[in-house]
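Subject: for your reference before the review

Hello V.,

The reviewers asked for a structural picture of the protein, and I figured it would be easier to keep everything in one thread rather than splitting it across files. Below is the amino acid sequence we used in the manuscript, unchanged from the supplementary table.
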Amino acid sequence: MSSSKSSTRVGVSSKVQELQAQLETEKQEKAELRQEMDSLKLQAQESKLTMAKQSHEVDRLKDIIKSQAQQSEAAMAKQSEEIESLKKTVQDYSGFLRQMITFQGQVPPP
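And here is what came back from the structure prediction:
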């Protein structure tokens, strides 16, 4: 019986060692997975930060473009007013020249 108990103890001891080795392996795998998960969390946070910065930059550029468009529209409106003013001046001078020509034709030569 003593050899039976001894072989049972050896079998149990062997099984305990096997289970301990398996437990250590699983602990190591768990630690590696946790480290990988932490790394992925950090990458996600960095991505969110990058996206927030890019969104802010896009908004800033939109504001710049909007401002430039408003300035362009104002400049075009001013140019349009200047063109209309020049057209009126040309019409006034044309009318004046016609009157001068007509007046010269009505005045008898000396």
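For the response letter, the relevant points are probably these. The mean pLDDT is 91. Residues 30 and 36 are 10 Å apart (CA to CA).

Happy to draft the paragraph if you're swamped.

O.
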